[in-house]
Design a protein that fits this description.
The chain is an all-beta fold. Helices cover 2% and strands 26% of the residues. It is built from two helices and 26 strands. The strands form four sheets. A 13-stranded parallel sheet has the order 1-3-5-7-9-11-13-15-17-19-21-23-25, with no helix packed on it.
């Protein structure tokens, strides 16, 4: 393969190639796209690949690669997309990647990366996914200013702390915001959920997840102003209290609503029955009281309904018989 000196595109994804990464690819100095996604490659990313200075797409995800992310990737001035997810890479994200001024996609999910994300990496990115690592530190408060074209911002299953940046209101293209599971965003006090106020500007938002964090306070009425494109809204496992705002009924395209394991209570509003597309509704382990609203019977698409550990009383409404998919 190293003799293919004019090679520009190399797509070998979805095969069963095994063994160490072939270092003689380094002779293919005209290469723009290197795609070996979903194979069985092992070992570290060879330093010889540092000669591929014309790369625009480096797609190595879904293998068994080990070692660190090489610093020399920062020399690839034309690089637009880095996909290293679903490997066994360790160590820190190199500061040198901040030199990649053409970078659009940064995907390093499901590795064993640790340390803080370098502030220099928050540049011109559309898709940013560091899900399922051991990364820590606070999210930069100016991230929505430095990344105005951000579409995917995913850092769930890490160790991030601090607050949700208000500047994300400037990222009007944002489709997915997910920092759920094992992070510690929030102080556990009132005011943590003011972030939901500014997210009203993100009219393309489809996924919003902050479950299993340390967010406190009441759910603001401004959730009524969240994107009507929102499909998944999960904030379970926090320290949220107070009533569920009736504005939740405006989010008519929700398929999953997860508010479990909080201190949300009073009565469950009838407007919950407006969410006709719901497939999963997680209300368990809160302090809801009073009767179960008959409007739940409108949720004919629901397949998962969790209500245990509350203070509901009275009889189960016959209208739940309409939910034939339970």
């Amino acid at each position: 393969m190293g003799r293919l000196l004019r090679l520009q595109l190399l797509h070998l994804s979805l095969n069963s190639f095994s063994g160490k990464f072939p270092s003689n690819i380094s002779h293919c100095t005209q290469l723009r796209v290197l795609n070996v996604i979903s194979n069985e490659l092992t070992g570290s990313i060879p330093d010889q690949l540092g000669s591929l200075l014309k790369l625009t797409h480096l797609w190595l995800q879904g293998n068994h690669l080990t070692g660190k992310i090489p610093e020399w990737i920062g020399n690839f001035s034309s690089l637009y997309s880095i996909a290293l997810g679903d490997n066994n890479l360790q160590g820190r994200i190199p500061n040198q990647l901040g030199r990649l001024t053409s970078l659009g996609n940064f995907l390093v999910w499901s590795n064993n990366l640790s340390g803080m994300v370098p502030s220099s990496i928050y540049i011109i990115i559309h898709i940013f996914s560091v899900t399922d690592n051991q990364l820590r530190g606070e999210l930069p408060q100016n991230v929505g200013i430095t990344l105005p074209n951000l579409e995917v911002f995913a850092g769930d299953v890490n160790k991030f702390t601090g607050t949700v940046p208000a500047s994300l209101s400037n990222a009007s293209r944002l489709r997915l915001l997910d920092f759920a599971e094992d992070n510690s965003l929030g102080s556990g006090k009132d005011g943590d959920l003011t972030s939901l106020n500014f997210l009203a500007n993100c009219t393309n938002l489809e996924v919003l997840s902050f479950s299993r964090n340390h967010l406190g306070g009441e759910l603001p009425d401004s959730i009524a102003n969240l994107s009507t494109k929102l499909r998944i809204f999960t904030i379970g496992g926090n320290l949220i209290y107070g009533p569920l705002p009736t504005g939740i009924g405006n989010l008519v395209n929700l398929t999953t609503l997860g508010i479990e394991q909080n201190h949300i209570g009073v009565s469950l509003p009838d407007v919950i029955g407006k969410l006709y597309k719901l497939e999963g509704l997680y209300l368990n382990l809160n302090i809801f009281s009073g009767p179960i609203p008959s409007s739940l019977g409108n949720l004919t698409s629901v397949t998962r309904l969790f209500m245990k550990g509350n203070r509901f009383e009275g009889s189960i409404p016959p209208s739940l018989g309409n939910c034939q998919n339970l």
